[in-house]
Structures are given as structure tokens and as C-alpha cells.
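Reopening: C-alpha cells for the zinc ion complex, inputs below.
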Amino acid sequence: MMWRSHLVMGLGAGYLVSGFDPVLLAAAGLGSLLPDLDHPNSWIGSRIPILPTIARGVLGHRGALHSLAATLALGGIIGLLWGREIGLAMAAGYLAHLAGDMLTLSGVPLLWPLPVMVRIPLVKTGGLLERFVVFPALTLGLVYWAVLPEVSGYVGRVMAWLT
Ligand SMILES: [Zn+2]
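Re-run output (same inputs, fresh job):
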């Protein structure tokens, strides 16, 4: 999937797990971009080119980084370093990335190191369906279920404070 689809899914997962907390949403958003660290054209990989070279050389693309083991390792390490809530939010975003990639033709080695690719091939990465249906629908869903209620809550509190 495209990085922006992953980001929207990661933010949605972060919202489901942690609510509308900017720090936790940022952690979930970052987590949703990390699995493609092994790809030179990924959002992070294109900005820090040495990372895909190292990750791809050690793990291969859509290898260990696209697995439940990596999700648990990331969530555990971040949780130990910066707290359970941040680790959980980042793991939620990371897991959302894996769920998105599972819907592509390539699938993901979810149970790595077992050599089984898990896939429900509904979407071609960057294809018309993703660009014009999946990404807009995910974005509208995130805005409708997460952003609008929060914004209306703030507006309501401000209006109550003003009156
Ligand atoms: Zn990926």
C-alpha cells in the first residue's frame, strides 16, 4: 500500500487504542510507516537512504519487518523505553500497516520466521482502487469517526465557556 494509506490506517488504529491524544497518535502514525523501512522508495527510506540498505540487506523487503514478531518487539522496546501507552500506540500503527499490506498481492510474512505469506489480494499497491477508493474512504472514515467528534467536542466546550 501507499505510505499515506498506511498512515491513515495507523492513525485510525492509534485512535481506537489510545483516543485523541496527539503524542500517541504521532506514535501510531510513525509505527504505521516503520515496516517499510526496508524499501528505498518508502516514506522513511527515501528520507534516510542508509536505513533501507541496511534493513533490506539483513531482513529483505517484506521480510521480518512485516511480521507479528517485529510488531511485538517494537511495541515491547518502545514500551520499556517510553512507556506502555506509547509502545501500545506504536504497535497498533505498525499492526495496521501489516493489515494493509495483507490486502495486497504480495502479502506479508505475518508469522515470520515461518515462510508463509498471508494475503487477501484485494488491492494493488498504488493502483486505481487504492488511489481513488481505498485511500479516500479511509481518510473520510478517519475524519468522520475520529476528527469531527473531537473537533465538535472542543467547539462545544469553547461555546459553553463563552456563554
Ligand atoms: Zn509494507
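The chain is about 70% helix and 0% strand. The pocket of zinc ion is lined by residues 35-36, 66, 97, 101 (CB under 6 Å). Marking as resolved unless the reporter disagrees.
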